[in-house]
Amino acid sequence: GLERGAKNQFSTFSNFITTINQKKEGIGNRNSPTQLVIPNIKNVRDLPPICLDVRQKQRISIDTLPQELKAPIPPEPSLPIRTKTVKDFEDDVEKAKSSGDWKAVHDFYSTTFDSFLEINAAFKKDTSSPFNTIEDSGINEKFVNVVYDALLNTPQDVQKSVLKGVINGLLQEWKGPRTKDDLRAYCILLQNPQFSNTSTYVIYAHLLRQIAALTEADHHFLVHWSKKISQRRFKQLVDRLLQFISLRLFPAKPEEFPPMVKCTWWIPSATKVLALFNAANSLIRPPIISYTDFYNSTLDHIDLMEEYHNWQCYGNSHRFSFCQYPFIISIAAKKVIIQRDSEQQMISIARQSLVDKVSRRQKPDMNMLFLNVKVRRTHLVSDSLDELARKRADLKKKLKVTFIGEAGLDMGGLTKEWFLLLIRQIFHPDYGMFTYHKDSHCHWFSSFKCDNYSEFRLVGALMGLAVYNSITLDIRFPPCCYKKLLSPPIVPCDHNTLVGICDVTLDDLFQIMPELAHGLSELLSYEGNVEEDFYSTFQVFQEEFGVIKSYNLKPNGDKIPVTNQNRKEYVHLYVDFLLNKSIYKQFAAFYYGFHSVCASYALLLLRPEEVEILVCGSPELDMSALQRSTQYEGYQKTDITIRYFWDVVLGFSLELQKKLLHFATGSDRVPVGGMADLNFKISKSETSTDWLPVAHTCFNQLCLPPYKNKKELKQKLIIGISNAEGFGLE
After folding, report:
1. Does residue 410 fall inside a structural domain?
2. Which residues contact 727 (CB under 8 A, 6 or more apart)?
3. Calpha distance 670→620 (Å, rounded)
4. 375 assigned to some structural domain
5. CA-CA distances (angstroms) from residue 678 to 258, 412, 470, 696?
6. Mean pLDDT (whole number) for 148-155
7. Looking at 263, 481, 616, 698, which residue is catalytic?
8. Which of 267, 296, 314 is the last residue of a domain?
9. Which terminus of the chain faces fewer neighbouring Cβ atoms within 10 Å, N or C?
């Protein structure tokens, strides 16, 4: 929470400056760099709480900011004239290192960081220009980087003079809105490398609080200016904020910081500033750093369900929860939240079934606690469709599968086999529901019209059941599919509201139909006369069951020629038609099927890429981790055959490693929890060594004959994994 501590237990923040001044006076030697120590950090006045601007159950991290916010621009005060250049500064530093006299350097740092005005005077590219646009911050980044790179190698009193100046700036009495010079100063101060040291965290926290409390218009400028920071510096800023949050949650030396109860605003302030960098990162294509670089794995060790429930209960209040900023929560932590939320829903529904049974004075049956699916292998799709449609009220119960006529108990293997067989059958080209694009190696929805789209709903329900029951599926949908699946992330109450419709671009089409996307890209860059040379109209043609059908992209599109002036509109409408409108009914059924199982506010925490990882697993392979977690049956890990096996596998190319994983588990991707979650097992096969290895994909089990040497093992293994498809050899 953001409850304020008792103010009378704190001395004023000004005492902190006095303490630093006293320490400075006691330092006699300026010549040697030493470890910076900030004393008495517990005596800090608690400032007013920040305004969090929390919106109930919305992802603040991906809010789309307007291109320009019309805000009154306060007059900029006149800046002092400072003429020192990068070369002048570098010369001063070199002279100080050789002579031991740091006075010139000390004077520069103490003057430059003494106030926000001085910071701008030193680092603004042109002090006579206002730089009031989002395109250019006006900061001389090269000079800032040189000054900060040199700072940590200066004597202690130089470093302390910088911190004293920062404190002076933060203590300034603000009247009215911030100027753009103030925002520039905040941008520059955030990059101070001294804030990586825990002894400066009190000052850092107050800097973060002031930035977090800025207006939305000011945040808008900071977000766009942050896009211009180099990748290395940007990553350092993000890592510094993540470290600050981690060490405040789990301090190595608790006595270094004020008690948590008296600085509850530290973590919310840092998280909100981190959200600004996340927003900046999201505006760039490709992003400056990966979205996974914003994950804080420390949060995996806190009470995530409490965070989740706080967010659900207090989402529109000033009670802080990390779920308000889901970009900081790792996919592993999100999986825990979703699984536990799913388990709670499973238990709740099972309990209600039991209560209903008892209230009718009927004998309870343990089967009522599960979603029991009974299917015939010969009628797999139709039986599965009927079962899921008939038992729609039970979809949130634990799944158990029975193959009719087979005496198998489902301990997890039958469920996985059901998923594998069903997915293979539904996605087969002959089935006609999905089209496989060889260029992109992915499936997309067939645009053929039909009377019943219930089978698309079945596929959506299958994906939902897989997430709900922690099953990894071997499905190849493009990223845009998962973006559509979260549009919106919560099923709207009004059934007339469109679902599965999202903004799509040429980049999305490239991931599905690269050849067509390339052709449209060529159209956009064509330098000749588009109308005369292409002779196209706002109309598209599609083949459906051997018949060519035409569709207008806009009213009377067949009569509107594509020209140099309107070709962007044509491409936009064409892509929207292919990825949204032409498959709307198919995808809407798929959307409702998925959300019939996975309807949860936890979906608001997920990015489209994270939904894909939950459904299909991660493509990142770590075979050494698989080796460490593998179980053995009939073998010991020290046996010569096992040593041969791992020597061979670790030497495989990535392609062969993926083939091995697909051969043994039914998928070449890794569950969210990593290789350990595969429960991979190697069993000794008592067959002839002339035989190839065999896999039981339902149990992630590889049966390996005791081959006599490494060469034979490698040869047989490569033949097995390269030619096996499904449940037999090609």
Report:
1. no
2. none
3. 7
4. no
5. 44, 13, 11, 13
6. 94
7. 698
8. 314
9. C
